Amino acid sequence: MLDTILDDVKEIGGYKAAAILDSTGEVLISDASNLKGDLNMAVAVFNDIFVTGHKTVSKLSLGMMKNMQFMTSDGIILMECSGADERVHIHMFVILGGEGNHALTRMQMAKAIPKAVAELTA
Predict the structure, then answer these.
(1) Is 0.85 surpassed by the pTM of this model?
(2) Are 18 and 92 in contact (CB under 8 A)?
(3) Coil, strand, or helix at residue 56?
(4) Longest dimension (CA), the chain
(5) Rounded Cα gap, residues 112 and 8, in angstroms
(6) Residue 20: its H or E element
(7) What is 2-121's CATH number, 3.40.50.970, 1.20.272.10, 3.30.450.30, 3.40.50.11270?
(8) What is the pLDDT of residues 5-58, one digit of tens each?
C-alpha cells in the first residue's frame, strides 16, 4: 500500500513531486516525475529545516510543529508531520508549481499521512 500512498496527491493540478520520509530524513517513498532536479537532495535539506523547527518550537513551549510551507515565485513546498509523539514519526513533502492547488494538497496530505503511519505500523 505504501507504494500507492502518493497517488491522490499526484493528481492535483500543479503537482511536481512528493516524498514521505522517516524523521531522520530517510526517504521511504517518493515521486519526482514532474520535477527538474534532485528530489532526494531537496527533501533532505527541507527535512533538516523541519527538524530544526521541531526543536525550536519545543524550546519556545509552543507545542509540536505540524507543518511548514514555503512560497516561492514559481512554486510551493508543503511539509506535514505525522506528529513527533506518533509511534511512527514521518514527514511528508509535496512540491507544486506556482499554479498548484495548495489547499487541496493539504487535504490530501491529511489523508495520506495517517494511511502511511498505519501501513508502517502494521
Answers:
(1) yes
(2) yes
(3) helix
(4) 41
(5) 8
(6) strand 15-22
(7) 3.30.450.30
(8) 999 999 999 999 999 999 888 999 999 989 999 999 999 999 999 989 989 999
